[in-house]
Amino acid sequence: MENPSVPSSRLLSLDAMRGFTIAAMIMVNFPGHEDYVFPTLRHSKWNGLTFTDLIAPTFLFIVGVSITLAYSKKRLSNAPKSGLYRKIVIRSLKIFAVGMFLNMLPDFNFSDLRYTGTLHRIAIVFLVCAILFLNTSWKQQLGIAVGILVLYWLALTGIPTPGIGKVMLEPGVNLAAWVDQQYLPGKMWQGNWDPEGILSTFPAIATTITGILAGRLMLLPFSPNEKSNFLLTAGFATAALGYFWNLIFPVNENLWTSSFVLVTSGFASMLFGALYFLIDIRGRTAGIAPGVIFGANAIAAYVLADLLALIFYIMPVGGDTLNHRAVHILTQVGPDPRLASMIYALFFVCINFIPVYLLYKKRIFIKL
């Protein structure tokens, strides 16, 4: 696995998967009405798994695959890597800075600032995993991922929460929450704990490493069908292992538990394998254009959604916000309020698609 042959063309399946993942992220982040949402379009309150819980780890898996495809040639080069490290650090800082900017919207209240979030985690994980990929073998990467998951499991289930004196896995009173309470600056998302906190970022790194390993598989001299089969088989086995680990260490996105990593990475691998088979092997490209277009400017689309939300979700329109008025009107026509809320969310995704499409049409790709 140390002498990959980098493919000359992009994987349409990966581009489409990235784009549809971002579109799904926008949809669940911006329901038409926060009080009317189908259960699977919400994050799990604590233990469990919904469609929404799958989105963030799937994107981190894609980040891992992309790291492998982008840096494989550079990794094998004898040229000094100092310039490459500088680019990686700068890109991470830019993503983190944009995340901070979005956290300050709309009122820029510096006294109530949150230092964590989706983009913050992507920035940190990308930085760690890109440097890790450039300096380690696939066996070392696998060992690091396994080590993180096992140590995280032992820490959360074996170390009593300070001040409580016993092991706790409940909201706000577990070891991860205690670490955040002691060392995480600024506001926390849930008052006394944060789903993108310090300790839970370590297993998120393991999630991205699973994507790196999947990317390395794509560079091996196997046939396309063999690669697809490996992705599907490895994904199923990983998800099954995560299911059984869940029996003693529950699947939990808020804690990003080790079982959550395996179940969601397994799902992402199976999804990637299926899309690779259908799109890149069989040439079934009908309907993938929106995903490819969103995927070409994925982070930009995510940022754009937060900016457009100032108009479509926050700015008053006739004494109410546009989203609430739209859901109210749709509900009067007949749909279930939750369906009306989802329809508006899909409408908002389409609104975001327009500028992203224009960027794609002009071959403008914003790389943070």
Automatic annotation (TrEMBL):
Transmembrane segments: 50-72, 84-106, 118-135, 142-159, 198-218, 230-249, 255-279, 291-315, 342-360
The keyword 4Fe-4S belongs to this UniProt entry's keyword annotation: no
Highest taxon of the lineage: Bacteria
Keyword terms, alphabetized: Membrane, Transmembrane, Transmembrane helix
PANTHER family per the UniProt record, alphabetical: LD22376P
Domain Heparan-alpha-glucosaminide N-acetyltransferase catalytic: 10-217
Pfam name, any one: HGSNAT_cat
Protein name: Heparan-alpha-glucosaminide N-acetyltransferase catalytic domain-containing protein
This protein's record includes keyword Transmembrane helix: yes
InterPro entries named among the record's database cross-references: HGSNAT_cat (IPR012429)
Lineage: Bacteria, Pseudomonadati, Bacteroidota, Cytophagia, Cytophagales
